[in-house]
Design a protein that fits this description.
The chain is of the alpha/beta class.
Amino acid sequence: MRLATLLVLTFASALSAATFYVDPAKGKASNNGSKSAPWSTLEEVVNGGGLRDVKPGDTILLRDGMHGRVVFSGANDDFVTIAADEGCRPKLSYLEITSGKKWHIKGLTISASFGEPYDGAMLKFADGGDSDEIIVEDCFVYGALDASSWTAEQWMKCNSGITMGRHGKGHVVRNCYVMNTRFGINLCAEDSICEGNIVSHFSGDGIRTTRDGQVVQHNVIRNVCVSAKDGDDNHDDAIQCFLFNKGTGTVRNVTIRENLIIMRESEELPWPAPMQAVGCFDGPLIGFLVEGNVINTSHWHGVTLFDAQDCKILSNVAYTQWTEEKLRPWVQLGGKDKGEIKGNTVKDNYAYTFDLKADKDVVAENNKVVTEEIYNKRREELLKLINEKYGDVHPAAGFRRVGLEKPRWLEGRVVDGEDGKVIDSVQASLNQGRLIVLFVFTHDEKDKRGTDACTEFEREVLDDEQVGKLLDDCATIGVQLGDDLPKEVRKRYGISKSPGVVILNPDGTEAWSGKPSNAKALIKKLESAKEDLAGG
């Protein structure tokens, strides 16, 4: 009888759950949040008290456009979901859940580049009060899409990615893409999970674990930059563990499992820097499990645990492709005289050396010297496992888990009255033997349905797989229409007052301009322009 009652209550709860819609393009703050009468932006919903209408179990779906800077709090008996609507890419300049319980944030794009500058993390939660079970999933968090021209100082002062605060338990950061940040993901709440994330291009630490019971697994951490010789005194780690209150207490029962760590994916990346891989230096560390991680770095610290007690280091691979350097990653049990080092097991690992003498009774079995073949095999197996669990392409970022990102439509995307910016972007792409494609857009024009015409065009035409392959061979530049776009730029590059595409020859002369009705039409124009170029 009790089971039947429970099933009825669960079914009734599911039936009563509501879905609200938020649409910057056609929504109004005075609407009721329904699909046909959506609210305007998430910032306006929060600041106007609209969350009072949202009950436990409800869902808020965000459509394309800018949703502002959002800070809120609140406790729920059942999860409230704030997510991207199907096929949409909602954007926020900042998101913070100061305190809260049972919130699920999914599929949002958050970047400090969308608003006024500020310091610190771009997505922060559970740092201001009582909190439990906050899930952040499938989000794209970045300082800027293109950081290739950043100075060392800009890298050291840029925003961090995600901060899980110290309050509560049971939080999750899952399958988020964190790019071009100071620190990637900071974990400060007990018994929480950080899994399936990508931390790409960072100048501090990739992931920081600081409290008991945390699980850090299946993450890809790659491309550290800026070192001591550039003025940065941070000792960069892919995964670092230290005491939340440094110098007192212990850290217990942390799991660091099956993470892929790559110091640098290309020698052409600016500001190269060394990186410690798994560095847990502030103990005592009790009951740690470090298992199945695959590491490629030029540093001594492949896997290092200090003041470890009853810890296990199992089946890790620590390799370096930078053989011209003297540094070779090791597996080490070390100490800072903060506690007795005892009861540890180190088995089935591959590294260059094993420094385990700090634990005189360590169980050390089947540890071998690493080879390139072993590294490549284990890397391939681990990447396959991670891709199967979380997907090989990130749903919000659109990038793969490994390999340098190819952001498109970056240079000149926002003009902001800087008369030379667009001109310089085009000039820099001239005479390189490839077509130059401009995507000219505005977020003011609406189509017949009242939706953002350029967002629809970008999704339905420019994001086509075959279009993307053709554009990979072109220089691609975004140009935002507006009153601040100089007439000289419009005239020189054939830019009209409506959104569309301009295809330029390598010398800057126009090959074609217009607004293709669909992906096939644009493919035809691009192929024709390429054929003309090949024919001289």
